[in-house]
Write a structure and sequence with these properties.
alpha/beta; GMP Synthetase, Chain A, domain 3; 26 strands; Rossmann fold
Length: 517
């Protein structure tokens, strides 16, 4: 006989929705979500999700289905995602920034008989080449939905079932769809929750639902009894953070390292009043971290490292002022619960409960990235990150760059990330990025052209910092062949939608970038 998944949940439950339901029973009147002036209690959120789940099951949503959800950020979106999970299915939040043809491809790949959209005229379903029914949540508040609470049929699912589908950036083709199980999320929040989570804490929600950072911002608070405050649909800016702090009580924030740097440069006072800031996604900038710690010594700053294939974080590090002076940059820390990291020929491999099942409908890519590591005579499934690292004598992991960023120029193997690490120590450099550049006669955009030199792109507030000064400083600390042949000052470093430096966009500015004399 099937059991009711929510009712069977207990303190040790590893299902995302069961953990939220448990919080609803422990503190039914506590605020789960803040959306504008609305305060939505746990009871209302859970009961509304029950109502939606009953409707989705009537439409045929079953365990194992991967349901595309095309709703904007908001309380209704989160209730619908809970409903999908209560059906035993997994969800995939569609990225509204993607072109419509890409969203249609995604719906087709997911293969669900039902998709959720804001209206029946959604352009994702019809092009899927199959019968995909579009369900729109009833108009009205979650309180109204909760009042018509349905009774979802209990279904057997466990923590290895896929809970969410996350998408990589897809800068070189269609995004990979990463199948992430319940345990990958709940391992982060169950036994030793990350800093900034738990009852009495409020976290901002600004990341797109297609990112794994969404799990941190939503399920982190909701599975631990905290509050999730929903930001406006647009990108979070310093003034938005101030409003969230003043109006919603936000005290915990996640920012990619590039956006963190922007906040520090443009409005470091915007962090005032926060208790915890988590950052990561790319190598942290010691000058920016140093400035933050000096101005906000009472705020806990955490460096989080981890590929989406290990859901949010594999390691974390509470940053100390002395970390900014370490030769290999700010450490990425020690493993989070349910996770282990290993070095295999200098490459970081991840094992444990955080691992994704693989990539949807891409067995070749799955086989290439996920492998087996034998530990103490026992085989364990592992993910090869492609990142290089080393442990210090205290067992703390340090990031040494991407293995796949290594380039060979004039017979020398060069590591751009290592050069960037040194360049960040040059006084006056705010941001920098090193790229291999094709031969000049072929032009920077020539397809397939082999690189013949490295270029350093940087931003600075100092008019005295010149290319010659930078190259002399680098020559004092790097082998001659590692010093970039060209140095370009740019107004800013362009980033992808995921908040990481966009190499293609940066190279496209090459002809416009000016090199100081």
């Amino acid at each position: 006989m099937p059991r009711e998944n929510a009712a069977a949940s207990g303190p040790g439950s590893r299902l995302v929705h069961a953990a939220v339901t448990r919080q609803a029973r422990l503190r039914p009147g506590a605020t789960a979500l803040v959306e504008g002036s609305a305060r939505i209690p746990y009871r209302t959120l859970d009961h509304a999700a029950d109502a939606y789940a009953a409707e989705l099951q009537e439409l045929g949503v079953r365990p194992g289905h991967l349901v595309p959800v095309g709703l904007p950020r908001g309380a209704r979106l989160i209730a619908v995602l809970l409903a999908v999970l209560k059906c035993g299915a997994g969800y995939a939040v569609l990225d509204p920034a993607q072109p419509s043809f890409r969203r249609r491809e995604t719906v087709s790949r997911l293969g669900s008989p039902v998709m959720v959209a804001s209206g029946p005229q959604s352009d994702e379903g019809p092009a899927a080449g199959r019968r995909t029914r579009v369900w729109t949540p009833p108009a009205g508040t979650l309180e109204e939905a909760a009042a018509h609470r349905g009774r979802a049929v209990g279904l057997e699912v466990d923590d290895s079932s896929t809970a969410a589908v996350f998408f990589t950036s897809g800068t070189s083709g269609p995004p990979k769809a990463v199948l992430s199980p319940h345990a990958a999320t709940t391992r982060l929040f169950a036994d030793r929750p990350l800093a900034g989570l738990g009852p009495g804490r409020t976290m901002a929600q600004a990341a797109p639902g297609s990112w794994d950072a969404f799990s941190l911002e939503v399920w982190g608070p909701l599975t631990t009894g905290g509050t999730c405050a929903l930001a406006a649909p647009d990108q979070l800016l310093p003034d938005d953070l101030r409003r969230l702090r003043e109006e919603s009580g936000v005290d915990t924030l996640w920012l990619t390292s590039a956006v963190f740097n922007l906040f520090v440069d443009e409005d470091i006072e915007a962090f005032s009043g926060l208790r915890t800031v988590l950052t990561g996604g790319e190598t942290l900038s010691p000058p920016h971290v140093r400035s933050f710690l000096a101005r906000h010594p009472g705020i806990t700053l955490v460096n989080g490292y981890g590929p989406v294939e290990s859901c949010v974080f594999a390691t974390t590090r509470t940053i100390r002022p002395g970390d900014c002076d370490l030769p290999n940059g700010i450490p990425i820390g020690t493993p989070v619960p349910g996770t282990d990291v290993h070095l295999v020929n200098g490459e970081i491999w991840v094992t444990g409960e955080g691992l994704a099942h693989g990539y949807l409908a891409d067995p070749a890519a799955t086989r290439a990235a996920f492998t087996t590591l034998t530990l103490e005579g026992r085989p364990q499934r592992a993910y090869r990150t492609g990142d290089r690292g080393e442990f210090d004598r205290h067992g703390v992991l340090h990031f040494l760059g991407r293995a796949d960023r290594q380039v060979k120029i004039a017979g020398h193997r060069l590591e751009p990330a290592g050069i960037e690490s040194v360049a960040r120590t040059v006084p006056g450099i705010r941001h920098c990025h090193v790229l291999p550049v094709p031969a000049r006669e072929t032009g920077p955009g020539a397809a397939g052209a082999a690189p013949d030199h490295l270029a350093l792109f940087y931003t600075s507030w100092s008019s005295d910092l010149t290319a010659a000064v930078i190259r002399r400083s680098l020559a004092d600390r790097l082998p001659r062949y590692s010093v970039p042949a060209a140095v370009y000052r740019v107004p800013y470093l362009p980033v992808t939608a995921n908040g990481k430096v966009d190499p293609a966009a940066l190279l496209s500015t090459l002809t416009a970038a000016r090199s100081p004399s």
